[in-house]
Amino acid sequence: MGLRIVVAADAAGVDYKEAIKADLEADPRVDSVIDVGIAPGEATPYPHQGVAGARAIAEGRADRGIFVCGTGMGMAISANKVPGIRACTAHDSFSVERLIMSNNAQVLCLGERVIGQELARRLAREFLGYTFDPGSHSQANVELIEKYESELGADGASVPASC
Known about the structure:
The protein is an alpha/beta fold. The protein has helices at residues 14-26, 46-58, 73-79, 93-101, 117-129, 138-152, and strands at 3-9, 30-35, 64-69, 87-89, 107-111. 43% of the residues lie in helices and 17% in strands.
């Protein structure tokens, strides 16, 4: 069974999103691509798309996401507001590898104003090729992140003493 990928962008990232979406649709590792917007010519603030894409993953409709804005940072911040989501900006191959291998992240965020389109497309392809090993030493860190998230709750008001 192939991957289900959700893509998202704002006006500053829509061109790269469209190119990456076309690549994903032609990739044999991908069964489906969910596009939560925006379309070229639209202007919707990135938090809407970041949260919509992250919700698709959290709800089980997608396995991973690739979100694009001007820097990638706004999309990452927005996506990380959805419980259970680990999203991060990456602009080099090593960071993309570590997103999965060290952090079991589901969302790669890219910045259209930061890197060239061919590099963004390559990083998106690389992102699909990694699989987290739950037997690795990184599993303990992922579990701690998940524990903080569940114990802190939505308001983040208290840090659990057990962590």
